[in-house]
């Protein structure tokens, strides 16, 4: 895939939405041009925060028209994968820090066996990407965390951009997603490094006009990618 063929996918993180009005929030970002809805699942064990489980994902899916990008920040991703796929996950991403070199192949296989359209793996900001090399051909997506997972509204860690470039050098052809502190001020650098999917919670839901913010982020991502190609 050449740079110009690569998608720019804007994925608002529902972690920052008004949970009391989640259906309206979904409709608001869909109408504003979102490509995916990013859903953060936290278990209070892998990360020090608790969020939502399959019943809420099912409710979001019923309200949504665009794909659900479900990020499992949980210690037992394989155990719960099928429940999240049945609830409507389109992309299901688990953490390398949970499975490691010994368990990642089996986890990918088990999650793929649920029939989910896309399987992803995520790496924390301080986790290198080189150990992912044996698994690159069996992954649809790699989510590079640009904050330590657990909470929205944190500051983007620019050092992770080298890992996006490294994954492309290693020949990864799938989607690369960035999550954490992605905003108009940081998205161009993410795109220039080789990112395709951009998760943003506070930057989108905290803005006055979600449609205008997503449009501007898409423009800045395209500009960043073009600048990098020159
Ligand atoms: O995975 C997450 C936190 O673990 C969130 O998706 C992420 O932090 C998005 O929030 P923000 O854009 O406000 O940083």
UniProtKB/TrEMBL annotation:
Catalytic activity: D-ribulose 5-phosphate = D-xylulose 5-phosphate
Statement: the UniProt record of this protein carries the keyword Phosphoprotein: no
GO molecular function: D-ribulose-phosphate 3-epimerase activity; metal ion binding
Enzyme Commission designation: 5.1.3.1
Annotated pathway: Carbohydrate degradation
InterPro entries: Aldolase_TIM, Ribul_P_3_epim, Ribul_P_3_epim-like, RibuloseP-bd_barrel
Enzyme class: isomerase
Cofactor note: Binds 1 divalent metal cation per subunit.
Positions bound to substrate: 13, 71, 150-153, 179-181, 201-202
Assigned GO CC terms: cytoplasm
Keywords: Carbohydrate metabolism, Cobalt, Isomerase, Manganese, Metal-binding, Zinc
Cited SUPFAM superfamilies: Ribulose-phoshate binding barrel (SSF51366)
Residue positions binding a divalent metal cation: 38, 40, 71, 179
Superkingdom of this protein's organism: Bacteria
Gene Ontology terms describing biological process: pentose catabolic process; pentose-phosphate shunt
TM ranges: none
Keyword Metal-binding applies: yes
Function, as annotated: Catalyzes the reversible epimerization of D-ribulose 5-phosphate to D-xylulose 5-phosphate.
NCBIfam families assigned: PRK05581.1-4, rpe
The protein's name in its UniProt record: Ribulose-phosphate 3-epimerase
Gene encoding the protein: rpe
């Amino acid at each position: 895939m050449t740079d110009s063929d690569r998608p720019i996918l804007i994925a608002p993180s529902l972690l920052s939405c008004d949970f009391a009005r989640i259906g309206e929030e979904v409709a608001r970002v869909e109408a504003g041009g979102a490509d995916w809805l990013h859903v953060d699942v936290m278990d209070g064990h892998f990360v020090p925060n608790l969020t939502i489980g399959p019943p809420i994902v099912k409710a979001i899916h019923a309200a949504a028209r665009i794909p659900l990008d479900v990020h499992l920040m949980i210690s037992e991703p394989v155990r719960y994968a099928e429940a999240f796929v049945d609830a409507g996950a389109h992309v299901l991403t688990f953490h390398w820090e949970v499975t490691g070199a010994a368990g990642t192949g089996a986890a990918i296989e088990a999650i793929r066996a649920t029939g989910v359209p896309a399987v992803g793996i995520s790496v924390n900001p301080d986790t290198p990407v080189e150990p992912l090399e044996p698994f690159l051909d069996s992954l649809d997506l790699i989510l590079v965390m640009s904050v330590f997972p657990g909470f929205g509204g944190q500051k983007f860690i620019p050092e992770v951009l080298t890992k996006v470039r490294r994954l492309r050098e290693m020949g990864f052809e799938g989607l690369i997603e960035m999550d954490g502190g992605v905003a108009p001020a940081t998205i161009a650098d993410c795109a220039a490094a080789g990112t395709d999917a951009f998760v943003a919670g506070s930057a989108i839901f905290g803005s006055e006009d979600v449609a205008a913010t997503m449009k501007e982020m898409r423009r800045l991502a395209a500009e960043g990618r073009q600048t990098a190609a020159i």
